[in-house]
Amino acid sequence: MPLPNFITDYVACPETGSPLTQERDDLVNEYGIRYRVIDGIPRLLIPTKSAEEEKVRGMMQKFYEGVTFPGYDGIDSPSVLMDKATKSGFGRWLDEAIPPLASVLEVGCGTGQMTNFLGLVSTRKVMGIDQSISSLLLGQQFRERFDLKNVSFVQGNIFTLPAKNSSVDVLICSGVLHHTPDPEGGFKELLKKVKKDGYIVIGLYNRYARIPLGARKCLFRCTGGTLRWLDAHMRRRDVDKSKKEIWFTDQYRNPHESWHSVDEVLQWFTECNVQFISGVPEIGGRVKDETPQKQKLFERHPAGTPFQHVMKQLGWMFTIGREGGLFVLVGRKK
Ligand SMILES: C[S@@+](CC[C@H](N)C(=O)[O-])C[C@H]1O[C@@H](n2cnc3c(N)ncnc32)[C@H](O)[C@@H]1O
């Protein structure tokens, strides 16, 4: 399946940031440097400039070449993908919030389930970037099988992102920055790619919500993983065995992760002139006609106070903490 025509509107040389043009099977920059496109995926990954960061990135790349997350087992049609997203809430709310003509970039897309799901609206242009080729190939296989012409997958590194500055309406990066050595620096790199008034959607492990998981991690380490049923996800009946195995490895054997608070990310927003729009779970109250089952991600919400945030995050130990403790903040670039 050929690369979508629009891809050169969004990709950029990871080395120089300059535009790329398509020449036969390659993408070429203005100095003639060529990047291969193999199995329909442009290979635009180059190392992070700092040696310390590159060490962690390389370790994470190796990990996610072996653990393709999230698992695709049983997801063999667009309707199953839609069903999964609808059940998760977050996917559905995102789909409802993103306009049909928007350009969307998902960074750290993993196996590209969200990228493909959002691309089921054929008028959107959706691109997924990740450094793990084995994960991207799963997304690409789904894309080819169901002929999603408006979706593309690219291999790249967050810290040398192969995307044009100020090019996308919506940027999503969920479950990724906490696996990098510099989450705030990564956030700033991502923000460069968002247009003015565009949205940035950031999902991170929460400092409070993840405490029970951290405790279980220590326990599993001491007991060789025999008490896995203590994790609520491992007890779920609606998730098959292989997906549970991927989840367990991702959550309990991940070589690098950090935890973050709501106020820390709000501080990044303030420093970078990003307006807070909403949180999942909500952090300061709901807007009109909103319920826990129907969140309006791109409508401006009250931000709440630092005291409210601490109280909410303590409560998250017993809610989102059961499924990894990931919270999401949505901001608008001013
Ligand atoms: C836990 S998975 C999350 C996948 C997906 N966003 C989701 O929520 O299901 C983390 C992903 O981040 C990717 N990743 C980690 N560091 C990266 C980097 N420096 N550049 C690009 N991708 C990276 C990994 O390859 C992996 O696929």
What does this 3D model show about the protein?
The chain has helices at residues 7-10, 51-66, 78-88, 90-97, 113-118, 133-145, 183-192, 211-223, 241-252, 262-271, 306-316, and strands at 21-23, 26-28, 34-38, 41-42, 103-107, 125-130, 151-155, 168-174, 194-205, 274-280, 326-333. The chain is built from 11 helices and 11 strands. Strand 8 (168-174), helix 7 and strand 9 (194-205) form a beta-alpha-beta unit. Helix content is 34%, strand content 19%. The two termini are 38 Å apart. Helix 3 crosses helix 4 (90-97). The mean pLDDT is 94. By secondary structure, it is an alpha/beta fold. It folds into 2 domains: 7-209 and 255-333, 3-Layer(aba) Sandwich (Rossmann fold), CATH 3.40.50.150; 211-252, no CATH class. Bound molecules: S-adenosylmethionine. S-adenosylmethionine binds at residues 57, 60, 64, 69-70, 108-110, 130-132, 135, 157-159, 174-176, 179-180, 250.
